[in-house]
Design a protein that fits this description.
The chain has nine helices and ten strands. By secondary structure, it is α/β, with parallel strands linked by helices. A ten-stranded mixed sheet has the order 3-2-1-4-5-10-9-6-7-8, with helices on both faces.
Length: 300
């Protein structure tokens, strides 16, 4: 079921973590959202499973025995770290008067991408929050690839939080919504408004395109006008602006608009027929996820 077609309360938020500063920052964002939705948070960590390699040596009993010991040590370490990590969040929750948020923990042995997909199926979150930078360059690459995999494989809204993203507690929250005049735009904005329930929102709908002919420009302006009229009727409480920007480099155009307009969040849909699908190929995804200091909401 496509959760973006549902308007429902976010009962559960899944936060995959690697114990990095980026993961901690992602959890801060998740806690504030959970408090507004009365949601439970599940912290999830996947650790390396040495027993998988041991299975390839069925006659090496000693090797398997040693790997079993290593496995139990790794599991013990993961549980100890996630409990300490949860303790940090509980202290933060009390400090910010968010102590009513329920925080649960889970660890699993295996590849992060595989195990996060399993966690999504079993926990059925209404939102996934994940940091986009980890411990060191290698960890950052792993975290980024996991985020990209979750985007491709999950129908659940995803919030990507850079390690240096600042949590804005005052309002309104200024959001850039990248549109390609797709029919999913209206559902995505409904979902965004639901996730940010209680916040005052300033939404900037922006259409990025390559330099075009005058007739195409006029068509874009008409579509933006239609979009603005629709959102003014359906969500009069949302402050709204609509913009059309021509730039051969989509990432450069997006970065420029974000900086010039003091944007707090970037929101976009991720579908193969959407022009922004090409943002998520390996090279451009890295630019967006690791260069931007703003959190990114992704809707399928």
């Amino acid at each position: 079921m496509d959760k973006n077609n549902e308007k429902r309360t976010i009962n559960r938020i899944l936060v995959p973590i690697d114990f990095s500063h980026s993961s901690l920052n992602a959890c801060y964002f998740a806690l504030h959202l959970a408090a507004r939705h009365n949601s439970a948070i599940r912290l999830f960590h996947a650790f390396f499973n040495p027993m998988v390699d041991a299975m390839t040596f069925p006659d090496a009993f000693t090797y398997q025995s040693n790997m079993a010991e290593v496995y139990h040590e790794l599991e013990h370490k993961a549980r100890k770290e996630i409990n300490a990590f949860s303790g940090k969040l509980e202290r933060y929750s009390r400090l910010k008067n968010l102590a009513t948020v329920k925080i649960e923990t889970m660890v699993a042995a295996g590849q992060p991408g595989d195990e996060i997909e399993n966690a999504v199926r079993s926990f059925d979150p209404g939102l996934i929050v994940i940091g986009t930078r980890g411990h060191g360059e290698k960890s950052a690459e792993i975290l980024g690839s996991v985020a990209a995999r979750v985007m491709d494989g999950s129908g659940t809204p995803l919030l990507l939080v850079p390690g240096d993203a600042a949590l804005k507690e005052e309002e309104p929250v200024k959001i850039l919504y990248a549109t390609n005049f797709d029919e999913t735009d209206f559902r995505a904005v409904e979902s965004l408004a639901n996730i940010l329930t209680g916040y005052s929102i300033r939404l900037e709908c922006v259409h990025f395109s390559a330099p075009s002919k005058s007739g195409e420009k006029e068509t874009d302006r008409e579509k933006l006008s239609e979009m603005k009229n629709h959102f003014n009727r359906s969500h009069p409480e949302i402050q709204l602006g609509c913009h059309s920007i021509e730039n051969k480099d989509i990432i450069a155009g997006l970065d420029s608009f974000v900086e010039n307009n003091d944007i707090d969040l970037i929101a976009l849909t991720h579908r193969k027929r959407n022009m922004f699908y090409r943002i998520f190929n390996p090279s451009l995804a890295k630019k967006l996820l690791f260069k931007s200091s703003r959190p990114v909401f992704v809707f399928n």
